[in-house]
User: Which sequence fits this backbone?
């Protein structure tokens, strides 16, 4: 899994850095702002124009974010992706990326959605075991997920 961030999860006073950004107590280059969410330019971008959408309220992970807020977060990301395509920034495609938990690459325990402009040769890759799985394995996984809903 690619490492997307290398910044402290808290401010010098111990506050969640994304909470501090959401309340205006920490600096950020805003691209979106409403009562529930902010969109900012990523401090350490994968590519120029890499944005983050984050709720102002603290939610450590996707499971703790109310479903309606999750839907709103993706709607904002969709709007920002369209805006990126209208700029003169290099943007042939877009990735939406949400790392949910440390093992997934989430370094700041405040749910956030990456909006990453992509172009051929940008160097961003996800290396995984992409082999085709058996129908039996897929059916077993589907059964487990259905049972856990």
Assistant:
């Amino acid at each position: 899994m690619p490492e997307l961030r290398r910044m402290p999860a808290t401010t010098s006073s111990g506050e969640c850095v994304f909470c501090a950004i959401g309340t205006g107590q920490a600096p950020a280059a805003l691209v979106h702002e409403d009562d529930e969410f902010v969109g900012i330019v990523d401090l350490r971008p994968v590519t120029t124009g890499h944005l983050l959408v984050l709720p102002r309220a603290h939610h450590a992970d996707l499971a703790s974010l109310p479903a309606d807020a999750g839907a709103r977060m993706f709607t904002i990301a969709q709007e920002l992706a369209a805006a990126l395509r209208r700029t003169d920034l290099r943007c042939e495609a877009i990735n939406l990326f949400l790392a949910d938990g440390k093992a997934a690459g989430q370094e700041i325990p405040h749910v956030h959605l990456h909006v990453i402009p992509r172009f051929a040769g940008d160097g961003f890759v996800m290396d995984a075991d992409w082999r085709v799985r058996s129908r039996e394995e897929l059916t077993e996984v589907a059964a487990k997920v259905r049972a856990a809903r």
